[in-house]
Amino acid sequence: MGQSHIINNKYIFEVPTSKYKMAARLxxxxxxxxLKDVFAGSNAPKVTAPNxxxxxxxxxxxxxxxxxxxxxxxxxxxxxMAEIPYKNSFVPKMSSKGKIPWxxxxxxKIPDSNFCIAFLNEEFKVDLDERLNxxxxxxxxxxxxxxxxxxxx
Length: 153
Known about the structure:
The protein has 153 residues and is of the alpha+beta class. It has helices at residues 17-35, 70-81, 113-124, 134-150, and strands at 4-7, 10-13, 54-57, 86-89, 102-105, 108-111. 39% of the residues lie in helices and 16% in strands. β3, α2 (70-81) and β4 (86-89) form a beta-alpha-beta unit. α2 packs parallel to α3. The longest helix has 19 residues, at 17-35.
């Protein structure tokens, strides 16, 4: 057990953190080991993409529903419309920002669907809005922002 001290008329109890840290690490390791088969996609094969092909990491699809994530659907639709070569990885692995979907292109990891689209626009010299005038671009941006910020759970 920990030791107690009185400092400035206050009772201080020291918790032996090393024992608790060790127990927490052990518990975490056991949970990961025994539940690895429960998590969707944990046994899925690792998907790789050659240079010049985008590797799109997104949530697994289910029967009857094409995609449960509107951000993943947006990014995959963008890749199709821009005719950018890509491969899907349906292993539910989060990006460095804790978000999904995210991409890997030529070894560079890009998190967040909006950052992915901006990166790919620059990398592939693509602008799907090039035919729009300033007013139409403003309306497009307003609708996109409204839908993204207010229509997901």
